[in-house]
Batch of 2 targets.
Target 1
Amino acid sequence: MKRSTPFVCSFVVILSMVPALWSQEKVDLETISRIRYEGFHNSKVMELASGLMDSIGERLTGSPNMKRANDWTRDQLTAMGLSNAHLESWGPFGRGWANQYVNARMTTPDIVPLLVYAKAWTPGTNGVVTGKCIRATIEKKEDFDKYRGKLAGMIVILGPDAEVKPITELPYKRLTDDDLAKTGEYQIPGERPPFRFAEFLKRQQFMKDLNQFFADEKVLAVIDHSRGTAGGGTVFVQSGGSYKPGETTTVPQLTMASEHWTRIARLLQQKKDVTLELNVTNTFYDDDPMQYDTIAEIPGTDKKDEVVMLGAHLDSWHAGTGATDNGAGSVVMMEAVRILKALDIKPRRTIRIGLWSGEEEGLLGSQGYVEQHFGSRPPMDDPNMKGMPTLLRREAGPVTVKPEQAKLSAYFNVDNGTGRIRGVHLQENAAVAPIFEAWMRPFKDLGMTTLTMRNTGGTDHLSFDAVGIPGFQFIQDPIEYETRTHHSNMDVYDRLQPEDLKQISVIVASFVYDAAMRDQMLPRKPIEKPLPKEPEKKED
Ligand SMILES: [Zn+2]
């Protein structure tokens, strides 16, 4: 147990009061039983998963598949009986992109196929190209000079040494009681949020400078290796260039399986010539710079002007089919509203589902929706901050809320893979603890036991939290999220855990139902105050 501070003891006191407080929270166990039955005995979640992952596939924001997924989810929600299913645009986002063909093979000293994926928002090779390889380790602009004039027509094998180790720990994980106890402990933050946006911008600028350097040097292509040490055919791939019009990189970029990349690196280290043959076809799409969120509702009754939302991001990265990130979150949300419709639930508050695009590029879809409906902070002068979410614009000034903001009781999000729910992150909102304690009780037998005051970041509930709307993400078992599926080519249907997805769908349907039926809206915490401008950092 941490050293007791007034804050911790007050929360422990609150927690110790929870049993008394939660018992005052009415929970309609009869309906909860019906939700469990429908979700466990008549589940459609894996059919939805195959429809999204197998029939549509990867859903990179801006890609044709992303639009297909928006249309498909809208039509599925309509077919489930939801009302007003429609697409809401946000943006402009920028250029769409998709890969149609990728092939790489070594031709000297050996002839062998290589496992590679094109990085998003990079160009193709315009047919088959062949080139010699050269190793480059470039971590800062000063490193450019080492390679100036040496890279023309070459294939750059880029990055620090790749390490491949035998898998010693199970890549599959469920949270232990000890893990959950630790999660329940609260860490007192410093004043300034840990996320230093300036560093993020610096990294972005470096990537632009590096791409420009390679273009100036007339490099044939750039190949880096997958992250992590597991290897084994799992390749983690993201973007290699900007999706903003006028900022498109001109150099083809690929990510290679570490085992294949290290063979080339060793040969180059031995001063042996390595020649590769590449053939990559990528397409940029400029027909529509706007992107879309899928929205649909179960209309309320006596409190129908008040709303409870649930959601998840529908977009994904492109090497797999975006199954655990975040097809899982999308289909459990769809299944949750399907369950409520199948039971002909008549909620008091309107229940609204949101399936967002643009999450992987910075929570852009949920941010766009929140800005249009609920509120935002003022824009910032800095051109780098254009289009950046409210949660990153704390220096810009106070949040201006819109009338709808007062009518949204809560937003529930799922975006941590396929693992079952073990609890909820309270985002420092202590007043909801006894309420969630009561709502959580009917699921103790399914492993849901833990509330933590901790914030959790990096996904769409933050867009709502940033404008003072209670936004929550659930604690989930990691399964293989970090070790295999998160942004990899192995993020596919087979990595989904059906029983876990059924558990998540049932719990989400129940929490949303409880929130829609409750007499009061959920209690709120104050909106974060603006941050003083960060002092200009002198370039070191
Ligand atoms: Zn995600």
Note: The chain is about 30% helix and 20% strand.
Target 2
Amino acid sequence: MSIHLHEPGHEPPGEGIDILFVTGDAYADHPSNGVAVLSRLLDAHGYHIGIIDQPPHESRGSMAALGTPRLCAAVTAGLMDSMVANYTPLKRVREDESTGYPGVRRPDRATIAYTHAVRRDLKGVPVVIGGIEASLRRFAHYDYWQNTVRRSILIDSKADILVYGMGERQMLEMARRLKDGVPLSGIRGTCTKEKKPPEHCISLPPFDEVSSDKKAFMRSFLLQEGGMHPLRSPPLAESYGAWHVVQHPPSVPLCTAEMDALYELPFTRRVTQTPRGRTRAIEGIQFSIIAHRGCFGSCSFCSLAMHQGTVIQSRSQESILREARSFLSHPDFKGIIDDVGGPTANMFGMGCGGPVDAISVPSIIDGSPVTVHIPRRTCGRTCLNPVCPSLRSDHGPYREVLAALRSLPGVRHVFVHSGIRHDLALGDPAFLDDLCAHHVSGQLKIAPEHADPGVLAAMNKPPVGVYHAFRKAYEESSRRAGKKQFIVPYLMVAHPCSTPAAGRMLQRMLRDHDIPVEQVQVFTPTPMTLSTAMYHTGLDRHMRAVYVPYGYGEKKEQKRWALGARKIK
Ligand code: SF4
């Protein structure tokens, strides 16, 4: 293995490194950590990898601690946008940082800060930026913390290329091209700066327009949203005068064999005790299993479809069982599998039953051709709310894999902690019975989000009645299983369309149904979501004016109403 995590005071590796990762997270050798997944994959392809995590980027030379990489530096802010990591929804400085070393914070706009430091210390080394922050700020975007429209992060960071989405295919292709001295332009799942946009591309409204014209901003977002189909979307180009930010078509989703190979890489599932302490990043998820990727929920405030995509990429049951068996020899394993899921746990094995197209691509395992089937998605609608008749929404494969895991010798409990889509689960009582009997550790997290029909429509979430029906079915299933277990509702206030009347409706619903509320989230406009476009423009996707609670006081008040609902008479 040739993965070197930089530790202060240690010498660079004698054999040098090909690719340097710079990350805003503390490194954890775990499948939930993007840098761990990419570095293990590249290592499996024979590349020498260096990792500098949460560097003191202001110190000159800090980026050269592992020597000069032969191919490139790959920069990421980490698992979340640095502004989301550093500030609360009401823009207060966040006290602690879950994915970092104790007391160590990533800088604001970490991708830009780290890239500038790499340019300072590693002159001439190509810089790739990626991860959630870079991916979702790839075009001009509304920045809530500055309350302004910022340019593409590719322009502001002065990086050479940007990876959007999950980066396995892109990183392997870039490493190969850099090794062979081939230009990096045109790689699926990347954005580059070009003097001239490619032919047959869709031109987004230019930066000057989207930064001053709200309708142009919404129009641009809708074109970006429509530009995420791996086979049918042409390149998108956004003009900055002399330069154009060009998004090449999305990367092709991974097939089952590739997902299996990727998540069976030899992660140690351990964090390193360093002079800066230990990160808590994998506490509670150390023995969690990533069963699939992608989500077709299309919630308006979520950007997953613009990053991981809507195609569900599921692993095989055999591969998941092999991973679970590997836990048995792990010194920390106590017989409890923390989670089996993905962005939405019960979408495992699901997908569009409509027409699909096939494409052959080099596999991330060994470069041999694999065929990937991709839904055509010419339907022009979302898969849920209501559930599309063409959706394959059978929970059978998920129930089978959970049952097989439960029966593994040495496994005492298999929990599901990833979010569950309650409207999907409601359609399958047998799954709900399994879930309640075997896989809930005392409480289940469900996201009804709100009660007001107008707010729920703006969020593209099911009506509140679906939540009440689910809650009833869940309580009955739990009773049948002889279990006293609760639902923790995820609620969001101050989302576009949340008028004071809507806030009161949520309050009344919580009081009338005596629903215990632990936490209420204030909507945070993060880059590249429909809800953020609505927040910034005051328009919905049909260019109709919508109410947006901008005031700090009003947001706090809506939160207080929901939190205190059961106390009102
Ligand atoms: S046809 Fe239905 S299931 Fe398929 S992509 Fe469209 S909405 Fe989703």
Note: The pocket of iron/sulfur cluster is lined by residues 296, 352, 354, 375, 377, 379, 381, 383, 388, 390-391 (CB under 6 Å).
